[in-house]
Amino acid sequence: MRYWLIKSEPTTYAIDDLERMQQDHWEGVRNYQARNYMRDEMEVGDLALFYHSNATPPGVAGIARVCEEAHPDFTAWDPESKYFDPKSTPENPRWMMVSVAFVEKFSRLISLEELRDYPELKEMVLLQKGSRLSVQPATQKEFEFIRNLAHEAVHS
DNA sequence: GCCAACGTTGGC
DNA sequence: GCCAACGTTGGC
Predict the structure, then answer these.
(1) Does residue A1 register a pLDDT over 80?
(2) Long-range contacts: A125-134, Cβ < 8 Å, 24+?
(3) DSSP state letters, A83-96
(4) High-pLDDT (> 70) share of chain A, %
(5) Average pLDDT of the residues in A124-134
(6) Which residue in A56, A110, A113, A151 could disulfide with A60, CB within 3.0 to 4.6 Å?
């Protein structure tokens, strides 16, 4: 299995929304590289860090699991949707999405600022200059390191 | 195929 | 709101 990091602006769709839904389509990805990761490499059972972008502060809010492999993103066909793309049709869908299931919400947000503090994470795709992919791979070590941070008892 | 102009992302 | 870094579009 593989590990991922998926970004969402919490004002649009936060980890709390996924918790409420339990499972949902990961719609609205309109970047080819991010689409390709979903279409070609994501498998059911893969785990993803759920990242809140454009937030105060930005950071990893929890974990989701891929629960359905890539299928056409039908929001691209809906003229009323903010994700509408007239170049995508049911006959020739341009955009794909997976479905994800809620796994857990961290008891504390692991902020971007904190992530930058750890040498163990300095190779993370998220932390590279200019990196802004909304679906990106993470290593097992990175994933587990961050999950462990979230699960650690808080020391004073 | 080049590349200028424009649009988006996302931290700050 | 600013702006750096990317990505896309479209004329040529």
Answers:
(1) yes
(2) A125/A5, A126/A5, A126/A51, A133/A7, A133/A31, A133/A33, A133/A34, A133/A37, A134/A6, A134/A7, A134/A8, A134/A29, A134/A31, A134/A34, A134/A53
(3) T--TT--SSS---E
(4) 98
(5) 93
(6) A110
- The answer to whether some atom of strand C lies closer than 7 Å to the beta carbon of A131 is yes
The answer to whether strand C lies under 7 Å from the CB of residue A132 is yes
Q: Which residue has the tokens 């809620």?
A: A102
- Is pTM, for the whole model, over 0.70? yes
Q: Convert A26-56 to b/e letters by CB count within 10 Å (16 or more is b).
A: bbbbbeeebbebbbeebeeebbbbbbbbebe
Question: What is the rounded distance in angstroms from the CA atom of residue A65 to the CA atom of residue A46?
Answer: 6
Q: Which of residues 66-95 of A touch strand C (CB under 7 A)?
A: 87
| pLDDT for residue A103 | 98
Which residues, in sequence order, are bridge partners of residue A72?
A96
